[in-house]
User: What shape does this take?
Amino acid sequence: GNFVVQCLLQNIADKQRIRLVDLVEQHLPELALRTNGCAVICAALEHGDTMDRGILAEMVLEDSDRIVCMADSRHGETFIANLLDVVGDAGCQRLWALLEGNPKFEAVLEQRSQ
Assistant: This one.
């Protein structure tokens, strides 16, 4: 099911994508706890419109335990990279404070510095 949702986020019309991202936002706490749900959140952060991506990023940043859990998941590097693409300076500082020393966070930062 998560692959279908990811494909939809990549390929459906804007109006439908906005509705689908809204559903991701509504179910964020449950999705964040599961590996497949993390993949869906990553896709929403990557393919949602600018406003929805910002809202979703802010929702993720509200819960430090959620951030750490998602960063440690199988999709952690993608999650971190997509989140860094969306958040401003304050969000980047928050991620740095929460994830400093996390190998996936370090890998994303190293990739971005090259």
Q: What stands out?
A: Residues 14-26 form the longest helix (13 residues). The two ends are 35 Å apart (CA to CA).
